[in-house]
Design a protein that fits this description.
This protein has 361 residues and is an all-alpha fold. It has a domain of 145 residues. It is built from 17 helices and no strands. The longest helix is centred in the C-terminal third of the chain and has 26 residues. Belongs to the FAM178 family. This is SMC5-SMC6 complex localization factor protein 2 isoform X4. InterPro entries: CANIN_dom, FAM178.
Length: 361
């Protein structure tokens, strides 16, 4: 009722009652049985009932639940006593996205995952996380603060038992939810960075997405921060805007009947190349600036500063008419300043002084 009631005030009142019942059952019950929490199929049925397509709830073919769309339709018909026809049972309740109802469901799931951390298996948690990420890409949801989404994500990440094994799987799965650079950056920034697991996921996911956007061959994700920074240096060398533009021009020429492109199309491709550079640099910042580093990692940041200066900053020719170039150069300056700050804070030991200033390759 909370998830489908069209009156926002009533839906919130039902949520309050539902949470009060759940807390009371958890606090005062002497029963060894945990309070009821919705199963994965219950959650899917609720969103499916709102009109969200099953394929949007579970978008990846290799990560599917043990039930399908037909099961949800059958359960809905049984719940309603078979009173609705087959056609009407599939009809969405809402004509537009019900933001309030969705957020109320998310709030209740946040409570459930908090009081019963063992309520879902790791695979179910992964499916829930992917469901939340996919839903967050909805344009209407992008217009409102997703604090409740992030609170639920914190609980779900905390409740994963085999965390180190699941992180690479989760990164690769989230990476498949979109191909648009802006959406991929949005997904990275949705991950809460104020918990250790959140920071780890955010860093690994950023590396996976950088590799994808640069058309790099997929490889294992390094867990150690110094290895991540080492991989980052290799990627940074490939982020020269002029090189990205050349790739785009070659690809576009191959698509043209006469194999040529005019000036207006070339300018549009240049804007796309700088936009891609801008997204990539934001992801670089997510990998490199999300946690503290030891003095032994200072040389890696010296390498990064050199690569950023040589391959990105020096490749940008500012023009008053081309503001997008200036925007990218400003981001380069902010990242460079942050790395310089890290270098200053990573005080060397006496034995490490000899390997600080290694020439950039």
């Amino acid at each position: 009722m909370m998830s489908v009631h069209t009156d926002c005030i009533v839906s919130v009142q039902i949520l309050s009652t539902l949470m009060e019942i759940t807390i009371r059952n958890d606090t005062f019950s002497d029963s060894p049985v945990w309070p009821w929490i919705p199963s994965l199929s219950d959650i899917a049925a609720v969103f499916f009932n709102m009109g969200i397509d099953f394929r949007s709830l579970f978008p990846l073919e290799n990560l599917q639940p043990d039930f399908n769309e037909d099961n949800l339709v059958s359960e809905t018909q049984m719940t309603l006593g078979g009173e609705r026809s087959e056609d009407s049972s599939c009809k969405p309740i809402f004509s537009t996205l019900p933001e309030t109802n969705i957020l109320n469901v998310v709030k209740f799931l946040g409570l459930c995952t908090s009081i019963h951390p063992e309520g879902y298996q790791d695979r179910e948690i992964m499916l829930l996380i992917l469901m939340l990420f996919k839903m967050s890409l909805e344009k209407q949801l992008k217009q409102i603060p997703l604090v409740d989404f992030q609170s639920l994500l914190i609980n779900l990440m905390k409740n994963i038992r085999d965390w180190n094994t699941k992180v690479p799987e989760l990164c690769l799965a989230i990476n498949e939810l979109s191909n648009h650079p802006h959406n991929l950056l949005w997904l990275v920034q949705l991950v809460p960075n104020w918990t250790s697991r959140g920071r780890q996921l955010r860093q690994c996911l950023s590396l996976v997405i950088i590799s994808k956007l640069l058309d790099e061959k997929r490889e294992d994700i390094p867990n150690a921060s110094n290895l991540q920074i080492s991989v980052l240096h290799r990627y940074l060398v490939q982020m020269k805007p002029s090189d990205l533009l050349k790739k785009m021009v070659l690809k576009k020429r191959a698509e043209q009947p006469n194999g040529t492109i005019d000036d207006s199309l070339h300018l549009e491709l240049e804007k796309q190349a700088y936009y891609l550079t801008y997204i990539l640099l934001h992801l670089v910042g997510e990998v490199s600036c999300s946690h503290s580093f030891s003095s032994g990692q200072r040389k890696h940041f010296v390498h990064l500063c050199g690569a950023l200066e040589k391959h990105v900053k020096c490749d940008i020719r500012e023009d008053a008419r081309l503001f997008y170039r200036t925007k990218v150069k400003d981001l380069v300056a902010r990242i460079h300043g942050k790395w310089q700050e890290i270098i200053q804070n990573c005080r060397p030991t006496q034995g490490q002084l000899h390997d600080f200033w290694v020439p950039d390759s």
